[in-house]
Design goal:
- The complex is a heterodimer of chains A (80) and B (255).
- Chain A has 80 residues and is mainly α.
- Chain A has four helices and no strands.
- Chain B is mainly alpha-helical and 255 residues long.
- Helix content of chain B is 81%, strand content 0%.
- Chain B starts with a helix and ends with a helix.
- Classes of the chains: A mainly alpha (80), B mainly alpha (255).
Chain lengths: 80, 255
């Protein structure tokens, strides 16, 4: 079984909380802002920068504690 | 399932109040006032599920405080429906409480409306939705604001509360626009639930404002149900927010 691409892992987590529409927009917006590249070109090396860019939005919507837990889970799944 | 249970409990309570209003009016009055206390407590508990750095803590705290202020005033002063029968001191106390209640609620809704500020993105049509709700707010409450304004200029003590209530309603209804766009933006995700509860609660407050044009005897029953649903679904939004935070933690355990 092929491993999921980094953007797919991040999308799966975001979609669970933000819904697929906003998850897709957030992924596109923040990969462009933080990495100047489209989501499907995000590598595991880029992922920490992408998650740092997503942090303010997640922290506001779910709270600081839950946001850090989500980002840690994504980091684990990306095996960083 | 648990979110539907919250909705069912709110509807059952509101219908129970309607029945009580005909069978035991005093019990219905106390039951309605208890809704304010419940929403206040739920808002404050939800606020403290966030850290001090979280914007939504302050939104929920203002929301809960507003309802606790209203709850206190209902028991110690009177319900606003009897303002014309109040003594001057009572009318001034009622007006002060209404100003505080509206200030808290507007603060809460400003903070809810600003949920996306500083996050780097926001729903695209948030501005347009705000304008649509401003138009609705003015259509519903502008007349009350003018009437209250004229009474305030004539020196009526109750008019301060009346103007604060109408101005607060206009501001709060306008800010329902961003709450609505947030609920829509989060559709399909678990974070949508508290925002949807909050929006539906606001829609019931708006309906309650709209029926103010009816004569008092026709308005009494729908006011009881709409007001109870507006307050209880606001409490439901606070409870849903806590449950969503739990769901987020549980989903991490499942992953």
């Amino acid at each position: 079984v092929a491993a999921s691409a980094p953007h797919e892992i991040v999308f799966r987590h975001l979609a669970r909380y933000l819904g697929p529409h906003t998850a897709k927009t957030a992924l596109k917006t923040f990969s462009d802002k933080a990495l100047q590249k489209p989501p499907d070109q995000v590598t595991r090396v880029d992922a920490p920068k992408l998650m740092a860019a997503l942090r303010p939005m997640l922290r506001t919507l779910i709270g600081a504690v839950e946001c850090e837990a989500v980002l840690q889970q994504v980091t684990r799944e990306l095996s960083l | 399932m648990k979110y539907w249970l919250i909705v069912a409990a709110c509807v059952a309570y509101a219908l129970g109040l309607l029945a009580a209003a005909h069978l035991a009016p005093e019990a219905a009055r106390v039951g309605l006032f208890a809704c304010y206390g419940l929403a206040g407590a739920a808002g404050v508990v939800t606020a403290f599920s966030y850290t001090a750095r979280d914007r939504l803590r302050w939104a929920w705290l203002a929301f809960g405080s507003g309802y606790l202020i209203a709850f206190t005033s209902k028991f110690f002063i009177a319900d606003g429906l009897g303002i014309l029968q109040m003594s001057t001191a009572q009318a001034l106390a009622w007006s002060t409480i209404v100003v505080l209640f509206n200030a808290s609620m507007v603060t809460a809704f400003v903070l809810f409306a600003r949920a996306w500020s500083g996050t780097g993105m926001a729903p695209a049509w948030r501005g347009r939705a705000t304008l649509v709700f401003l138009a609705i707010a003015l259509a519903v409450d502008a007349k009350g604001l003018l009437t209250g304004g004229r009474a305030m200029l004539a020196g009526q003590p109750w008019a301060i509360g009346f103007v604060a209530s109408a101005a607060g309603d206009i501001a709060a209804i306008t800010l329902v626009g961003p709450v609505f766009t947030t609920a829509i933006a989060l559709r399909g995700g678990i974070l949508m639930r508290p925002w949807l509860f909050l929006f539906v609660a606001c829609a019931f407050w708006l309906s309650d404002d709209v029926i103010a044009v009816l004569p008092a005897e026709l308005r009494r029953d729908p006011d009881m149900v709409l007001r109870a649903l507006a307050i209880l679904l606001g409490a439901g939004a606070a409870v849903a927010q806590v449950l969503v935070k739990r769901d987020v933690r549980a989903s991490l355990g499942d992953a």
